[in-house]
Amino acid sequence: MAKLLHISASPRGERSESLALARTFLEVYRELHPGDEVEEWDLWDGSLPEFGPAAVAAKMDVFAGLEPSGAGVAAWEAAAAAFRRFAGADKYLFSVPMWNAGIPYVLKQFIDVVSQPGMVFGFDPELGYRGLVTGRKAAVLYTGAVYGEGRGPAFGADFQAPFFDGWLRWAGITDIASVEFRPNLATTEVEARRARAHADAVEAAKIF
């Protein structure tokens, strides 16, 4: 039995295009994998710790081979708890809407919280970074209201998919499937694009 963790970065609930795609994906996935566990992690539910001065100090202590001290002890444990929840899954489904050409700040907060030495990555002064979250697979649902591939600069730029895909690979997750519904607003082909995106989500779930 495998565990799939759905991490949602959309705060829009029933009005969210990325969450609608996730519902389509998960409906098919649950039908095909009835014995698997599916956990939902809404990044807007308040469970993510902040990563402020105490946490940064703890991170640099760990980098230096020291133990966190003072307020850094609790901050480091909070980050470690978030990482354990993340690392406890075998598969990941990410719902990622585009915000200002990039990702929602709560997803960046998640990345900054869990991306710690000895957790998401290892580091060697001569060889550089090494992703530690290996042996997993991820499906990413990218949505965007205005930006679309092939559109001119007046419709925005894409720092969403390159950044997030890059983070996954940096963390050690290289088995990645992507579904896109971009654009989903500034076009006369909304319904056709939506139908294609949901069909793509179905196909991605079938082989996940």
What distinguishing features does this structure have?
five-stranded parallel sheet; alpha/beta; 7 strands; two-stranded antiparallel sheet; Rossmann fold
Structure report:
The protein has one domain (3-48, 75-206): Flavodoxin domain (Rossmann fold), CATH 3.40.50. α1 packs parallel to α6. It is globular, with a radius of gyration of 18 Å. The protein has helices spanning 17-32, 53-63, 71-87, 105-114, 161-171, 190-206, and strands at residues 3-8, 37-42, 91-97, 121-124, 128-131, 137-143, 175-181. A 5-stranded parallel beta sheet has the order 2-1-3-6-7, sandwiched between helices. The chain contains 6 helices and 7 strands. The protein is an alpha/beta fold and 208 residues long.
CATH class category name = Alpha Beta
Return the CATH topology: Rossmann fold
Number of helices: 6
Helix and strand succession? EHEHHEHEEEHEH
Biggest sheet, strands in spatial order?
2-1-3-6-7
Q: How helix-rich are the residues, as a percent range?
A: 25-40%
Supply the helix-strand structural class.
alpha/beta
Shape: globular
Which stretches of 5+ consecutive residues score pLDDT under 50?
A: none
Q: Which band does the percent of strand residues land in?
A: 15-25%
- Distance N to C terminus: 14 Å
Total number of β-strand segments? 7
Largest sheet: 5 strands, parallel
What do we call the CATH homologous superfamily? Flavodoxin domain
The pLDDT mean sits at 96
Radius of gyration over all CA atoms, rounded: 18 Å
CATH architecture: 3-Layer(aba) Sandwich
Oligomeric state of the chains present here: single chain
Overall tally of structural domains = 1
